[in-house]
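Appendix B. One record, verbatim.
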Amino acid sequence: MKEATMEATSGFRAIGEVVADDRARIAFGKTGVRKDDRYAIAVNDDGAILLTPLATIPRRELLVWENAELRASLARGLGDSAAGRVSDLGDFTQYLDEDVTKEPQE
């Protein structure tokens, strides 16, 4: 294998060479890809393929990523909890609305 063939784009490192099977599939196990990992795929004009790892989150959690103040508050709360700075406020089941069966619409 020639080094020019494996020349990596800036920030990438060559891992090896693979051959597509009869169904045009390529195994990426050498790169650390695991079962059920998700990737965005991009192809440039030269045919280079870029896979970007993705993490899928529920829409209801997207608010945390879109709101920096909420994200900071959540981080403080998690830090307090991890440090043991918590208070038991008792049982909140008295406030449970038994008629609510689904999440509110966004």
